[in-house]
């Protein structure tokens, strides 16, 4: 049941996170001012739990007719991860100032954190309609279209925006990502280079150039580019994830953990960071910590099947088979075509020598289209299963 290092896929999955990260969800002078004020107020001292609780309660009680107060309250509640309360305040402020793009941008950030992806997309689209020259909003919407594989919509949006703002580095960086998604690496590189010509410290372009370097096996250049991006923006999540993946592959588990933890601090709802951090903890032998990390993920995102799956994996590493079985059964029950959940259930049944249950689970797995039987045959966790004649005959019949 011990986790093995698998160099390539670890970093590959970390790099995929870049496509899921929206840059600059809150733009505009008001947003910047609010964030600076709050950061300066908390700097230099540890937060007192009683003070934090009092501040959250104060923010939740904000009312009246001052849109800015609702905005400040909403952004403050987001910082405290009180997402539902934050949405309530931001929606109230939006009613008072429907043309203020700051509310739509903030809700575009908050809605997905509450699992409301469609509302987040709608807020981004409203932002662009209300303020078509707000390149932050356009960039965010273009990235969201990329995530959704709406490539034609993304291209139309970017071409129109670049027609008005040909020197907007962020727009060129996203256009590069669009070209890369379309399979045109040369065109992507041209756009990334243009973005860096306009803004030599553009973190998104630096990150993407690093991804291209990684694609071609130049890990040193990839790391250098990602470090440059972090100089420009120490909280650039794509670069943090990329460097974390490199550290994990290089056996520098402590370094990887710090990087993934930073990303998780920036966005506790980004499950890819939680998964990567959990894997790093498991590789370090910190199974209890991994269990707590994934358990917190389930509490934060109870509908996220990946959260349940990886909590099951952590329980399994810890030797808590009944708890692991409960998580995998939940995933299989909620998503009956999830092959990985059935693989883990077969693993548990085999380790417990429950041959009939293991056999039935394998049959279900094969009925779902699973064909990688060598994966089971060559893993010692499935030794009891493979030694069971009916199961071995079933596995052999697949090939």
Topology (elements, then pairings):
Blueprint: H1 7-16, H2 29-42, H3 49-60, H4 67-79, H5 83-96, H6 101-113, H7 117-130, H8 135-147, H9 151-164, H10 169-181, H11 185-198, H12 203-215, H13 219-232, H14 237-249, H15 253-266, H16 271-283, H17 287-300, H18 305-318, H19 321-334, H20 339-351, H21 355-367, H22 373-377, H23 383-387, H24 389-398
Helix pairs in contact: 1-14, 2-4, 4-5, 4-6, 5-6, 6-7, 7-8, 8-9, 8-10, 9-10, 10-11, 11-12, 12-13, 13-14, 14-15, 15-16, 16-17, 16-18, 17-18, 18-19, 19-20, 20-21, 21-24
Structural summary, described in words:
With 399 residues, this protein is mainly α. It is 75% helix and 0% strand. The chain is built from 24 helices and no strands. The protein has helices at 7-16, 29-42, 49-60, 67-79, 83-96, 101-113, 117-130, 135-147, 151-164, 169-181, 185-198, 203-215, 219-232, 237-249, 253-266, 271-283, 287-300, 305-318, 321-334, 339-351, 355-367, 373-377, 383-387, 389-398. Helix 1 runs antiparallel to helix 14, helix 8 packs parallel to helix 10 and helix 20 (339-351) runs antiparallel to helix 21. The protein is globular and about 70 Å long.
